[in-house]
Amino acid sequence: MSQPYHSSPPPPFGHAILPFFLFDPNYVNLNHGSYGSCPRPVRDACIELGDQIESCPDLWLRLKYQPKLVAARQQLASLIGVKDVDEVVLVPNASHGINTVMRNFLWNEGDVIIICNTTYNSISRTAAYLSDIPPHPSVSQFSILFPTSHAEVSAAWRKHLASVRASAGPNAKIVAVIDGLISNPGCLLPWEDMTAACREQDVWSIIDAAHTIGQQVDINLDEVKPDFWISNCHKWLFAKRSVAVMYVPKRNQHIVTSSFPTAHSYISPKDRKEGEYNFVDQYEWNGTIDWVPYLTVPDALAFRSWLGGEHKINDYCHKLAMEGGKKLAEILGTRVMDPDGEFTAAMVNVQLPIPPNYAYAEMDMMFKEKLLVKRNMFGAQYYHNSLWWTRCSAQVFNDLSDFEKFGKALKEVCFEIVEELNKTKGMQQIIRS
């Protein structure tokens, strides 16, 4: 851009915002949630900072990066309602942060890890891995089947926690992984109440908030008091890929004794003074990385402020998600998973016109090839509760016409997939018979 973007007011939300991003002009992006989208001003700040670092790597990586890192942590701490900046550090992504926490617990035989059927796959696999190695904590799965309601989820969650505690006994360590916003379906859970329920049963709470920051406003972790909370900044906050914020309150920093990988500043617990955890120090250097995504988080926040701030952004995205979901359902001849919006932030879930219980492994790749390669557009597809759904992300650069265009193409794609699979599977059945 020829002049600083903030020298003039922002254009109205919708396609007028597209010049501030780097998309192929013909690409219809309804999948911002998966990887995020870096605005041009943030990309420009990354290039400028990267050039400065390369001008004298020793100066930057030994002395100059740390004040900028502290500034980024301070701004993020304020955004998520944490007064003590030394309870907030930055990590590469949410999966990395959650693994750091889960692998730092000292597990004992009889301990339990609680996940959900909707837990992000790499995190459920982390729980499985920890269960596979000594001392083999068990894994308990809580099921959420949509459509449902917040009240039903909270009630069932309390019942599940009580059952696990009764079975495991009063002395067992129980650690629950809770989605703030589920990846698929893209639904906002009552994670604050689910966190409170964990405290009632003396259960540790790890909030997988990968999609939360930038998509949920007025977060106050000092008030909600989760035990651990990790959120990606490169998804909904417009930061450069990849960086996440990890919240570990001081009351729990004795649990996370080591960063991952272990830092040169690690101090063995047996050598620490009482109350000394050197938590933050371990995340200021645990190996050479590209610091640019971390140090330009303030540039992403400045861009969001120029756009109008968190509430204006989220109000637009939520409204568009609701209207876009309704339009998609109308075009597809199906339904919105959450018509009242209780679970909807900026991602909307709409049923696809595919028969129930119609699930083949190759369908995922078929969707990707037909939408991305052949039609230059994308929204996520997934299988849940015996049905196929699409999860579409509404962002400030989208408008309702994107949902209309995507809906018409998606209807064609669903028809093609079912027709092609029916022929293939029918031919296979003939061959077998």
Key structural traits:
single chain; 433 residues; alpha/beta; seven-stranded mixed beta sheet; three-stranded antiparallel beta sheet; 12 strands; 42% helix; disordered C terminus
Question: Can you describe this structure?
Answer:
The chain has about 425 residues and is α/β, with parallel strands linked by helices. It contains 13 helices and 12 strands. Strands 2-8-7-6-5-3-4 form a 7-stranded mixed β-sheet, sandwiched between helices. Strands 9-12-11 form a 3-stranded antiparallel β-sheet. Strands 1-10 form a two-stranded parallel sheet. Strand 11 and strand 12 form a beta hairpin. Helix 6 packs parallel to helix 7. It is globular and about 65 Å long. The N and C termini lie far apart (about 65 Å).
Structural class: alpha/beta
**Number of helix segments?**
13
Q: Reading side by side through the largest sheet, how are the strands ordered?
A: 2-8-7-6-5-3-4
Stretches with pLDDT under 50, minimum 5 residues: 429-433
Shape: globular
Helix share, percent? 40-55%
Main sheet, how many strands, which sense, barrel?
A: 7 strands, mixed
Summarize the structure.
By secondary structure, this protein is an alpha/beta fold. It has helices at residues 32-35, 40-55, 57-79, 94-104, 121-132, 150-168, 191-200, 221-224, 292-295, 297-307, 310-332, 363-375, 400-432, and strands spanning 28-29, 88-91, 112-116, 138-142, 174-179, 204-208, 228-232, 244-247, 347-351, 377-378, 380-384, 387-393. Helix 2 packs antiparallel against helix 3 (57-79) and helix 12 crosses helix 13.
